[in-house]
Amino acid sequence: MTAPVVSLGDLVIDLVTPVNLPITPFDHQESGGALPEPGGSGNFMILGARLGMAVSSVGAVGDDLFGRFLCEVLVSEGVNISGIVRVPDVNSTLVLDLIDRRTGQHVFIGSSSQAAPVAYSTLMDGIIASAGAVFFQGYTLLEKANVEITPRAIAAARGRGIPVYFDVGPTVKHHPIDDLDSIIQQTDILMLTEDEVPLAAHGQTGDPAFAWLLAQGPHTLVVKQGGQGCTIIRSEGQLAVPGFPVNVIDTVGAGDCFDAAFIFARLSGQGWGEAAQFANAVGAASVQKRGAGRNVPTCAEVRSLLEHHRVWNPLSC
To answer: Is 99:59 a contact under the CB 8 Å cutoff?
Structure first.
């Protein structure tokens, strides 16, 4: 098993609801049911654990029905939740995922937890100290409960030479740009989609944006490009790694799964190109299933996809 990866915050419940988008007034629909599943970092952690990676969570949830459900699912999937604080009398973050039945595209409607800041504890610091990598997303930066935890955890990881992975995400446009710059400066590996590049690079795109981001502190950019694959960008050059052609059913959680697979491959000793290829395969396996959470791919499904495409898999999965 690899050294543990620690995921910071983004502990949410998704209500996965199939619909026909767009939703318009008085155009009533039968959805077939809203299914609760761990979302956000839950996708990342469940997929990582299924690949065989030791995964720990540090953050906070409400001590409510949804928060308890989230913790129970994570435990059942083998995730260490000793670093999660359950805050009494507070609602957990809830996200309504409207999934278009026809295209697989989605819309998120969120209701963030209003928990007060939670203190960074000695227990949390011990979890960080044992990590092989620390991971967090832009969504985490919006969580009031984690405003003390996140910067302390990042500083603790960097002080110990533990690589910090940051997935930008679309919500950083709501975060003060100076604070975002500071976060990027403390990141070793920056992960983002092509659409998110200008959000992180002050409106810049393409090679000028990549050069600017690398100059801020990260030594590696991982640009996710959906079905086309991804591109690894480092000071010595760029490496485009093609994706896998599959039938797309639902894109929810695919980026989270990609992130977990990429980090798992890196912690397992794989090079940048090999890690990118494996992450592309996991992302492709993800979009062939509806919803995320407990519906993220299994190790057997990833292995089957790689075998189908005749790609050698040196990892334990």
So the answer is: no
Contact partners, residue 173, CB within 8 Å, separation at least 6? 199
Domains delineated in the chain: 5-308 (3.40.1190.20)
Q: How would you list the strands of the sheet with 133-137, edge to edge?
A: 80-87, 55-62, 5-8, 133-137, 164-167, 189-193, 220-224, 229-234, 237-242
Answer whether 204's CB lies under 8 Å from 214's CB: no
Going by C-alpha positions, the residue among 151, 160, 152 that lies closest to residue 131 is: 160
Non-local CB neighbours of 34 within 8 Å, separated by 6+ positions: 15, 16, 17, 96
pLDDT of residue 226: 92
CA end-to-end distance (rounded Å), the chain = 11
CA angle 155, 157, 161 (to 5 degrees): 115
CB atoms within 10 A of CB 169: 25
Residues of the chain with pLDDT under 70: 1
Q: Which region, left, alpha or beta, applies to residue 84 given φ > 0 means left and ψ of -120 to 50 means alpha?
A: beta
pLDDT tens digits for range 67-124 = 999 999 999 999 999 999 999 998 898 888 787 887 777 788 877 777 789 999 999 9
Q: Are 282 and 302 in contact (CB under 8 A)?
A: yes
Q: How far apart are CA 13 and CA 97, in angstroms?
A: 10
Is 27 buried (19+), middle (13-18) or exposed (0-12) by CB count in 10 A? Answer: exposed
The 10 Å Cβ neighbour count of residue 260 is 28
Dihedral pair phi/psi, residue 228, rounded to 5° = -80, -15
* Amino acid at position 228, single letter: Q
Taking the CA atoms of residue 155, residue 159, residue 162 and residue 166 in that order, the dihedral angle to the nearest 10 degrees is 30
Asked whether the beta carbons of 192 and 165 are under 8 A apart, the reply is no
Q: For residue range 280-308, what is the model confidence (pLDDT) as tens digits?
A: 999 999 999 877 899 999 999 999 999 99
